[in-house]
Design brief:
449 residues; mainly alpha; Growth Hormone, Chain: A; two-stranded antiparallel ribbon; two-stranded parallel ribbon; 15 helices; 73% helix; 3% strand; globular; transport; MFS_trans_sf
Length: 449
């Protein structure tokens, strides 16, 4: 039998109802996380008066551990709690941490509490997407891109609401709004639980009484996922600068005047999720046309293209910063940077999450998805160290360094494409075998009835 029993025939917007529940839950979680993150580096440097190098290290360390705890949270969810209870526990702890951020003496404790809650919440939510679809459901390949769009609605709203409250009315109002968002996501998940399939941990047995591949990893798959984690770690050390040193440049190196109105610095962090929402339908349509024509790139090839495009985004900033020679650049250049960056992101991040979820053994779903987020942990740690160079290097040289890092990740991802094709082909064959076994089992049960 499958990992869960998909609710066939019960759809919203052409997708299982449970996908909408998962999207809305993570949308509000993303709102809370990015709402707090939009304020964090400014809060440390402008309110707590922590010097820039140290604030970058704190920022990188917090982001890293927020994505390190999911490793343990995923294991606990798979072995003991189950995904549903892990999401509820993690969401409750995160909401508490966000409300603690409104009290300055609890700053470091609050960061640790949010990171702890994220460990239970983060791997257990997206790992439920695969359970909504049958093995041969044609909608499954696009589910993670649709999910990514929905989640980014929260990322778009976060800087506009939390950022505006924090900048104009007080930092703690922004942090409080983030806590309310987390509580809203948790309420939606509890209410919508009836639309999510019940977890089924019974292993599938193939011909000859052997356990299905879904009970563990084979060596080629394990090697592929390990290589992918290394490549994405390199990529994220550059990508994570969007909320760190790029945000600092938006404050110190960008002319944010639009007529008589000065654009708040946190608003620029809404550009990335807004562009995700606007651009994804066009990219999906393009990929569908390519798939129909037999010219669609493989997932690893797409990811390599994405990393190279992100490198191009940082080249743009390096050129603009050098051309301005210390003067403030127009905010339109920063907007152009986000357009290029987001294009690359859509090629790499949803595809990476989809690969890990697709290759996850049945009994290790949350743990495998957690390992994808482990790359965010290692990449954020590296990003904190790279961010500390902001005060050392000239701005054009610093952005050029980020471009080199992203380009190196692109080469690494491209090198993984050939072994990845072999793993996907083997997995597709096993999927077909499992589907045949499940169909035969259902037929036998129907005959007995």
């Amino acid at each position: 039998m499958s990992a869960a029993a998909p609710a066939s025939g019960q759809n919203w917007f052409g997708q299982p109802r449970g996908l909408t529940i998962l999207i809305l839950t993570n949308m509000w979680e993303t709102f809370s996380y990015y709402g707090m993150r939009a304020l964090l580096v400014y809060y440390m440097t402008l309110e707590l008066l922590i010097e820039q190098g140290m604030s970058s290290v704190i920022y990188g360390t917090y982001t890293a551990f927020a994505y390190f705890t999911p490793i343990f949270g995923g294991i606990i969810a798979d072995r003991w709690l189950g995904k549903r209870r892990a999401v509820i526990l993690g969401g409750s702890i995160m909401a508490l941490g966000h409300f603690m951020m409104t009290f300055e003496p609890l700053f470091y404790i609050a960061l640790g509490t949010i990171a702890l809650g994220n460990g239970f919440f983060l791997p257990s939510l997206p790992s439920q997407i695969n359970d909504l679809y049958g093995a041969n459901d044609p909608r499954r390949p696009w589910a993670y891109n649709i999910y990514y769009v929905g989640v980014n609605i929260g990322g778009f709203l976060a800087p506009l609401i939390c950022g505006t409250l924090g900048e104009f009315y007080g930092w703690h109002y922004g942090f409080g709004a983030a806590g309310i968002g987390m509580a809203a996501g948790l309420a939606i998940y509890v209410w919508g639980g009836k639309y999510l399939p019940v977890e089924d941990r019974t292993p599938v047995t193939l011909a000859g009484g052997k356990a299905s591949f879904r009970d563990g990893f084979d060596r080629p798959t394990l090697m592929l996922l390990g290589g992918l984690l290394l490549a994405v770690t390199v990529f994220r050390s550059a990508y994570e600068q969007v909320g760190n040193t790029v945000a600092l440049w938006a404050n110190s190196g960008v002319d944010r005047a639009a007529g008589s109105f000065e654009i708040p610095m946190t608003w620029f962090q809404s550009l990335n999720p807004l562009l995700v929402i606007l651009m994804t339908p066009f990219l999906l349509a393009r990929w569908r046309r390519q798939a129909a024509a037999g010219t669609e790139h493989s997932p690893l090839h797409k990811m390599a293209i994405g990393a190279l495009v992100v490198a191009g985004a940082y080249v743009l900033l390096a050129v603009v910063a050098g051309w301005q020679d210390g003067a403030r650049a127009s905010w339109l250049w920063l907007a152009a940077f986000f357009v290029v960056l987001t294009t690359g992101e859509l090629y790499i991040l949803p595809n990476g999450l989809g690969i890990f979820a697709r290759l996850a053994p049945q009994r290790l779903g949350a743990s495998t998805v957690a390992s994808w987020f482990f790359a965010t942990f290692t990449g954020s740690l590296a990003g904190g160290l790279v961010g500390s160079l902001w005060s050392v290097l000239p701005v054009p040289a610093y952005f050029a360094l980020l471009a080199v890092i992203a380009a190196a990740a692109a080469l690494f991802l491209r090198a993984l494409d050939t072994p990845a094709r072999a793993v996907f082909a083997a997995r597709a064959a096993l999927d077909e075998q499992e589907a045949a076994v499940a169909a035969a089992t259902n037929d036998s049960e129907a005959i007995r009835v």
